[in-house]
Design brief:
Among the domains are: 141 residues, Rossmann fold, CATH 3.40.50; 83 residues, no CATH class; 119 residues, Dna Ligase, domain 1 (2-Layer Sandwich), CATH 3.30.1490. The protein is an alpha/beta fold. Helix 1 packs across helix 7, helix 10 crosses helix 12 and helix 11 packs across helix 12. The protein contains 16 helices and 30 strands. The strands form 9 sheets. A 6-stranded mixed beta sheet has the order 3-2-1-4-11-12, sandwiched between helices. Strands 13, 14, 15, 20, 25 and 26 form a 6-stranded mixed beta sheet that branches.
Length: 649
C-alpha cells in the first residue's frame, strides 16, 4: 500500500444536481459544492477552483486528481449517444431486438420494448462463420471494405463488431475490426475486446453500448484533461463501475466501464467508513464501523443503495441501465428515482407520488428561490424542519421557506388535504400534512430499494449498519432505520460530498474475463492455471505498478445443464483439502475439486440445496488491484458536536 499522506489529492464527482469536490491536504479536508453545469466539464473545473480557494492553495499544488463522471450514464438515460452501426454475422442482425424472452411487464397488454441503441438500417451483416471449435469460414477483406463504404454512407459515428462465437475464436472479428479501423475514421468496438464471454445478446448489447458511449466519453474526458492541464493539475484518474480508478487514457478506450462511475465512488467512500478505516471512525466513541453496512446515497435526483461486507463493496458482473443489459464488473447498486429534488405529484387516481422526475439544480426545488414552483422532497424537508431555516445549501444557497409552503399548499389541494390534521402538538396545517406525506412516500420508496439488496437476497438488514450520505441521506436515515430494524446509523462528516471523498479512497482496479467452459471433474490445477494466465497477464499490463498489484481470481460456475452461474473465489482457502505438493507448473492454490466444493456450498446457501452433478467453470475472472492509502481525516469528537432536535415527519 502506497503512502499518500504528504500528497495533495482532490476528488470531483458530478451529480445530477451538484458537482462535489473533496480536497485533502495532509489530514485537512476541504469540500466544495457547485451546481452541475452544461457542459459538465466546466462545473468540474469550477469545483476544483472553489475547493482550492477555500484551502488556500493553487490548483497547481494538487498532486493527484480523481474524477467520477455521469457522462456515460446520462447518454444512456437520455439516448443521446453516438450514431452507432453494428456489424454482425449474416443472419444475426436482429439479435438486439429479439433479446431474451423475459417481459418486464408481463400483464401489460400495451407494454412496448425499448428501442435498441442501433436501428435496423444501421445493422450490417458479414459472411463468416465461427463455432466453439474454430473458424469454419474466414472473412473476405474485400467484402469488409465494401461494407465500410455502406457504413460511411449511413453517417455512423461509431461501429460495434460482434460476430458469432468471437469470444472463443476472435480471428474473424479481429480481421473485420482491423479493416474497419483502416477504412473509417470513427471508433470501432469489438466484442472480443469488450466482453469475451458467451451469451450472444448480452455480448452484443454490451459492445454496442461501448460504441454508443465512446465518442461522448472521449470528448468529455478530453475536455476535462485539457482543463486540468490548463489549471496545472495532473490528468485525472477516472472512477469506473467496478469501484476502482484507472487513468483517463485507459478509460477513454472502454467507455462502457464507466456507466456507474458516480454511484461506485459513493459506495467506496461508504465502505471506508463502514470498515472504520477513515474519517477518524476507529477512534470515535461509536467504536467505528462493523465492516457490514447498507450504503444509502440520497442525492438531488435519485437514491442509490448497495451492500458492504467485510469492509468491501459487493460487486456484480451484470446490470441493466435504461433497459440496456450490460455485462461488465460493477458495484452492485440499486437505484430509485427518489432524491431531494424529486417532484411530488398526484396520479390519475389522486394518490400521492414522488419522482422519478426531478427539479434538478436549475430551477431546483421551490425553496431554492430560483423560480421553481413544483413541490419536492427538499421542500417537504424544509417545511417539516429537517432542514433548518437558516441553512445554506451548497455553502451559499439560502432557502425560501415561504416558497416551499406555497408549493406544498398547491399539492395539498391536489391531494385534497384541507384544514389542520391531527391534534395538540401533532396538529399540522394542510401544507405541512402534504409535506409529511411526501416525506413518508419517499421513505417507502427508498426502503423498498434497501429491501431489494437485503431481504430479497436472503440477508437480514438488522445485521448491517446504515451509512447515510448524499445531500439528503442523513435527513431520512433514522426513519429508514426504524422501518428496517437497523440499530445503528453512521453519518460521515463529509456526508454531502462522500462520493467525491470516496475517490480519495479508491484503489486502482482492472478486470478481465473470458468464457472457457471447463468441466472441473476433468480439469487439473495446471489446466486452471493456464486458463487464468492470459487474463492475469492482461490485467497486469494495465496496472500502473504490476509489482504492487494484488491479483484475485474467481470463476463463474454452474452444474452441468444449468442456464446461469454463481461466481466463487478460485483461490484455495485454508479449509480446502489441496495438494500443495503438486509438481510442474501447476499452481497449488487452483484446485478443481476445492473450486467445485465451494460452488456447491454457494449454491446451497443461495438456493437451499446442492446436486450430485458435475460442475463446470464457465467464465474465469481476474482482478488486479493496486491499493492506495486510505485517507485519514481529523474531526471533532462526539463530545464537541452541537446537538439539537428538529423535524416532525
Amino acid at each position: 500500500m502506497g503512502d499518500d499522506s504528504d500528497r495533495v489529492r482532490i476528488g470531483v464527482d458530478v451529480g445530477g444536481t451538484f458537482t462535489d469536490a473533496a480536497l485533502l491536504v495532509g489530514d485537512d479536508l476541504t469540500t466544495a459544492k457547485v451546481p452541475t453545469t452544461t457542459p459538465q466539464h466546466a462545473g468540474v473545473l469550477d469545483g476544483i477552483r472553489e475547493a482550492c480557494d477555500a484551502a488556500g492553495i493553487a490548483p497547481a499544488d494538487v498532486d493527484a486528481f480523481a474524477h467520477a463522471t455521469t457522462a456515460s450514464v446520462n447518454a444512456l438515460l437520455e439516448r443521446d449517444g453516438a450514431r452507432t452501426a453494428l456489424v454482425t454475422t449474416a443472419g444475426f442482425r436482429d439479435v438486439l431486438e429479439i433479446g431474451r424472452q423475459t417481459r418486464p411487464s408481463l400483464y401489460d397488454l400495451r407494454a412496448e420494448k425499448a428501442a435498441p441503441l442501433v436501428p435496423r438500417r444501421r445493422r450490417f451483416e458479414v459472411d463468416e462463420r465461427a463455432t466453439t471449435d474454430g473458424i469454419e469460414r474466414a472473412v473476405d477483406p474485400a467484402a469488409v471494405r465494401d461494407l465500410a463504404e455502406e457504413i460511411a454512407a449511413s453517417d455512423a459515428e461509431s461501429v460495434a463488431v460482434s460476430l458469432l462465437h468471437a469470444y472463443a475464436h476472435p480471428e474473424n472479428e479481429a480481421a473485420v475490426a482491423d479493416v474497419l479501423r483502416e477504412e473509417l475514421s470513427v471508433p470501432v468496438s469489438a466484442s472480443h475486446d469488450v466482453l469475451p464471454e458467451f451469451r450472444e445478446f448480452e455480448r452484443t448489447a454490451t459492445t454496442v453500448a461501448d460504441a454508443y458511449l465512446t465518442p461522448e466519453l472521449d470528448d468529455y474526458l478530453g475536455r476535462v484533461v485539457d482543463g486540468a492541464r490548463d489549471l496545472g493539475l495532473p490528468a485525472p484518474r477516472v472512477m469506473r463501475s467496478n469501484g476502482g480508478v484507472a487513468d483517463a487514457a485507459t478509460v477513454r478506450e472502454s467507455a462502457v466501464t464507466t456507466v456507474l462511475s458516480g454511484p461506485a465512488a459513493g459506495v467506496v467512500g461508504a465502505a471506508a467508513v463502514a470498515g472504520g478505516e477513515t474519517l477518524g471512525a476507529a477512534d470515535d466513541s461509536t467504536g467505528g464501523g462493523s465492516g457490514a453496512a447498507v450504503t444509502f446515497d440520497m442525492g438531488g435526483t435519485s437514491s442509490d443503495v448497495s451492500l458492504v461486507r467485510d469492509g468491501r463493496a459487493e460487486r456484480t458482473a451484470e446490470t441493466t441501465i435504461a433497459d440496456v443489459p450490460l455485462r461488465t464488473p460493477t458495484v452492485d447498486v440499486e437505484t430509485v428515482g427518489a432524491g431531494g429534488g424529486s417532484i411530488a405529484w398526484t396520479d390519475a387516481g389522486g394518490a400521492l407520488r414522488v419522482g422519478p422526475e426531478s427539479a434538478g439544480a436549475e430551477p431546483g426545488p421551490a425553496c431554492y428561490g430560483k423560480g421553481g414552483t413544483e413541490p419536492t422532497v427538499t421542500d417537504a424537508d424544509v417545511l417539516l424542519g429537517y432542514i433548518g431555516p437558516d441553512a445554506a445549501l451548497g455553502g451559499d444557497l439560502s432557502l425560501d421557506a415561504d416558497a416551499a409552503r406555497e408549493a406544498l399548499a398547491r399539492l395539498a389541494e391536489a391531494v385534497d388535504i384541507g384544514g389542520a390534521t391531527g391534534s395538540g402538538d401533532d396538529a399540522l396545517d394542510a401544507p405541512a400534512a402534504a409535506a409529511r406525506g411526501v416525506y413518508r412516500v419517499a421513505n417507502a420508496t427508498m426502503a423498498r430499494a434497501i429491501r431489494s439488496v437485503t431481504v430479497e437476497r436472503g440477508r437480514d438488514p438488522r445485521a448491517f449498519d446504515l451509512v447515510a450520505f448524499g445531500g439528503a441521506g442523513p435527513m431520512h436515515a433514522a426513519a429508514l432505520a426504524d422501518r428496517l430494524g437497523v440499530d445503528r446509523v453512521l453519518v460521515p462528516g463529509p456526508a454531502g460530498v462522500l462520493s467525491a471523498y470516496g475517490l480519495l479512497a479508491a484503489d486502482e482496479t482492472h478486470d478481465a474475463a473470458r468464457t472457457v467452459r471447463l468441466p472441473l471433474a476433468d480439469a487439473t490445477a495446471a489446466d486452471l492455471g493456464d486458463a487464468f494466465a492470459e487474463l492475469t497477464d492482461r490485467v497486469l499490463d494495465d496496472v500502473s505498478d504490476p509489482a504492487a498489484a494484488r491479483v484475485e481470481r474467481a470463476a463463474d460456475c454452474r452444474y452441468a445443464g444449468q442456464s446461469f452461474e454463481l461466481t466463487v473465489d478460485a483461490e484455495a482457502e485454508a479449509t480446502d483439502e489441496v495438494d500443495w505438493t503438486a509438481g510442474g507448473d501447476a499452481d497449488p492454490a487452483l484446485d478443481p475439486d476445492a473450486l467445485a466444493e465451494r460452488f456447491a456450498a454457494a449454491h446451497e446457501r443461495a438456493y437451499g440445496y446442492r446436486l450430485d452433478a458435475g460442475v463446470e467453470a464457465v467464465t474465469l475472472r481476474v482482478a488486479a488491484t493496486v491499493e492506495v492509502a486510505a485517507p485519514t481525516v481529523a474531526r471533532a469528537g462526539a463530545a464537541d458536536a452541537e446537538r439539537g432536535s428538529r423535524g416532525g415527519g
